[in-house]
Amino acid sequence: MKHALFCLTPVLSKKLIAKGVAVLPEVKKALSQGKILLGTGSTATHIYLELGGEIMDSALACGIITAKGLCVGHGMTDFVGAHGHAKYWLFDRGRMTPSDNLEQVLIDLSANDVFIKGANAIDSTGQAGVLLGLESGGTIGKALGYIMAKGINFLIPVGLEKTISGS
Predict the structure, then answer these.
(1) Which terminus of the chain has fewer CB atoms gathered within 10 Å of its CB, N or C?
(2) Strand-pair category, 121-122 with 128-129
(3) What are phi and psi of 142, to 5 degrees?
(4) pTM to 2 decimals?
């Protein structure tokens, strides 16, 4: 028996994750008949492109972890917005739909729709971790109540390059 080992760079891993997410039954159904809400980030960018979003002019990072700590908050979201990037992406029946009102988008989502938010970390038991980028809880802090109360399909795609050794 022969064995092979493939090691992917984080970028290639995110592209492969995006291809897998795009063919999930709930994603395919929501793309054609409902809504998909994507939180922005590096993995979500690849999903956005796989679902038919247009290529952006520059790289996208919504939060960066540096030697000095986290780079998130209003300064980062203002920077992202000033460079033409959305704070989230919304597909409504396969078409990109611009909206700056996250609260209204969440109100309009149903159990037939999908919310996708990449993770900042994954632990050894497979639990995903997401940073709360703003004092208000950021996108995930605003969305989680709606997701749970309405039964919205919730996907947290994350590559193994974000593995941490502890909980």
Answers:
(1) N
(2) antiparallel
(3) -75, -35
(4) 0.85
